[in-house]
Amino acid sequence: xxxxxxxxxxxxxxxxxxxxxxxxxxxxxxxxxxxxxxxxxxxxxxxxxxxxxxxxxxxxxxxxxxxxxxxxxxxxxxxxxxxxxxxxxxxxxxxxxxxxxxxxxxxxxxxxxxxxxxxxxxxxxxxxxxxxxxxxxxxxxxxxxxxxxxxxxxxxxxxxxxxxxxxxxxxxxxxxxxxxxxxxxxxxxxxxxxxxxxxxxxxxxxxxxxxxxxxxxxxxxxxxxxxxxxxxxxxxxxxxxxxxxxxxxxxxxxxxxxxxxxxxxxxxxxxxxxxxxxxxxxxxxxxxxxxxxxxxxxxxxxxxxxxxxxxxxxxxxxxxxxxxxxxxxxxxxxxxxxxxxxxxxxxxxxxxxxxxxxxxxxxxxxxxxxxxxxxxxxxxxxxxxxxxxxxxxxxxxxxxxxxxxxxxxxxxxxxxxxxxxxxxxxxxxxxxxxxxxxxxxxxxxxxxxxxxxxxxxxxxxxxxxxxxxxxxxxxxxxxxxxxxxxxxxxxxxxxxxxxxxxxxxxxxxxxxxxxxxxxxxxxxxxxxxxxxxxxxxxxxxxxxxxxxxxxxxxxxxxxxxxxxxxxxxxxxxxxxxxxxxxxxxxxxxxxxxxxxxxxxxxxxxxxxxxxxxxxxxxxxxxxxxxxxxxxxxxxxxxxxxxxxxxxxxxxxxxxxxxxxxxxxxxxxxxxxxxxxxxxxxxxxxxxxxxxxxxxxxxxxxxxxxxxxxxxxxxxxxxxxxxxxxxxxxxxxxxxxxxxxxxxxxxxxxxxxxxxxxxxxxxxxxxxxxxxxxxxxxxxxxxxxxxxxxxxxxxxxxxxxxxxxxx
Length: 806
What we know:
Elements: E1 24-29, E2 34-38, E3 47-54, H1 63-79, E4 85-92, E5 95-103, E6 110-111, H2 181-199, H3 215-234, H4 238-241, H5 252-259, H6 268-291, H7 297-311, H8 320-351, H9 358-369, H10 380-406, H11 413-430, H12 438-466, H13 471-478, H14 480-484, H15 494-523, E7 533-536, E8 539-542, H16 543-552, E9 556-561, E10 569-575, E11 581-589, E12 598-605, E13 610-612, H17 615-626, H18 635-647, E14 651-654, E15 656-657, E16 660-661, E17 667-671, H19 676-687, E18 691-696, E19 704-710, E20 724-735, E21 741-743, E22 746-758, H20 766-771, H21 774-785, E23 789-798, E24 801-804
Parallel strand pairs: 3-4
Antiparallel strand pairs: 1-2, 2-3, 4-5, 5-6, 7-8, 9-10, 10-11, 11-12, 12-13, 14-20, 15-16, 17-19, 18-19, 20-22, 21-22, 22-23, 23-24
Helix pairs in contact: 2-8, 3-6, 3-7, 6-7, 6-8, 9-10, 10-11, 10-12, 11-12, 12-15, 13-15, 15-16
């Protein structure tokens, strides 16, 4: 059925007070032969009185009549927000034939009082009279009459024009700062719903021919379209001239309410007539425009319309023949715009179900590059921004999905290996994407790495102990830490892993040396004599260990002679490389009181001389030949003194922020142009919950006063004159210890101290590093990498033991 068209022919005048005054014809329908008038000098009120006039009284009993009233109520809801009820009288040939009412709360469905009567008889109503048409409690169908009123610009009259259904392809304006994809898609859906409510069922075909309205309607149409297109037109308007973009005035939301049907339905003859009318209106209204003062709303309205007509070349002199190519270009732009809207809407719909996977980035990138979107014109930019936001959102979701995977690995050595393998793959994949959640991922990664590394240490130590005492086993142990932790972040207990490796390597060396020594002794048939006690350079040893030590230094075994039945001298012959043979004569004596007898060298002979040896001389000679170095002071004996020294000095302290010395809280600082860094750093500490920041009144408008107060979270770190001290150093190891030396009658040693920083969890937050000084940042980096802080220290022996020396 052909849709009944309601042509609203009167202009609703809005006074400066916002009150609509005087009787006004609201609408009329040629097909139904009906018109509607609002009654009263001030008709916009909670109850609006309306008179309906019909050439045929029977029209008041048709379903179309109920649809008309519902649509009229919707229009009045926008134009007169106070309207709550319509009181309607139906007239035909000057006689009352129908009366009833409709209320906003009831969806503007009409109803008649039970006592309503028919004042006159009309054909077909002699017996029953007219009754209110039954209106279904649902949205009017596509065949229902449609009423649509454009929203006026501030201070401008409302021009009500023939209304037709607005297709669903209407553009949706997006904010330049594109919100999250889900919000934008929801906003787009909501806009479409509003379009259907205001303009009829979406996608319904237009049934009215193009209608050229009066000048006032054209002015408002052109002025509004100019608001959309003015930037492009003022820069030359080339995209419009080439047909790349569609002039906004031809878009459905601007064109249909004024001209009655979609733009593609216009013929070349109608377009030529349109162009002639537009130019005539422009010339007619130009004197009025020039006569109005600057800043007058009416003048601005006319200027916008005049500029639009000129810059868009709408009023060019055309006839049906010359209009054809111009119209074809605009219709092609319309079609391209229609396809662009469909493409955009399809993309918005696809965003709702875009999975967090790598292929989705390719999908989004292809969306942004879709050439059909070019026809959106300036609206393409916010849409691409939306897709950029969707890309960022997708990256965030993928990063956090990876973080959730990290949480699933069990706290064991196998779990640690799985985590480290996974995070390497995840980092390589995620590094290609820009995300706001990177720090969250890194924090979770560090926390889980530390937790799993703590749980996995016993299993790692067991693996090291199980490594065979061989060259292959030694190589495996040496590479164990780097194999397990090939990249940062390293766990906080990384030094425990390294100590386990160092310990096992020493054991392997000892075991391998023992095996090699046994093989050497067996080769020279000395296995049976290897356990014979011997006084070595460091005290108790064995004959076998002494022989192996000599061979390790390059001496070759010659022979070994045991004493005869009546003798007591043992004779060992060793060959110096490229040199003479040495003969050691040894006796079993009580070298150490209370210990079993042991071999001690009494005489050494070479080809030219014989040298008698005392016990001390024998030990010195043995040390020289075997390369023995007496053990120094063990690092473990010095660690307590080193830790006491570290604990006596606050570590990781922030004593100065830019030029402000901060050694007491609360503190009030005047922040001027020269010390903005103070404000910035304290603001960062405030964001971390360490300081409460309060802006205080200032007499000097050029400066601001800020009061900073420590929170309960920060109080443990405040060390008075030292400021805020966030770190502790743990002494781990002392190596390269020197031989004791004398100075000023006191005994000293020096060594290399390795210490590990201990910082609170919030120190991993990038904002903390930005708020503190360089030295503290060094401690943060050391903690993240697991690299110890090395320094040379000196110790002095006192009656109470070793102490760190200043």
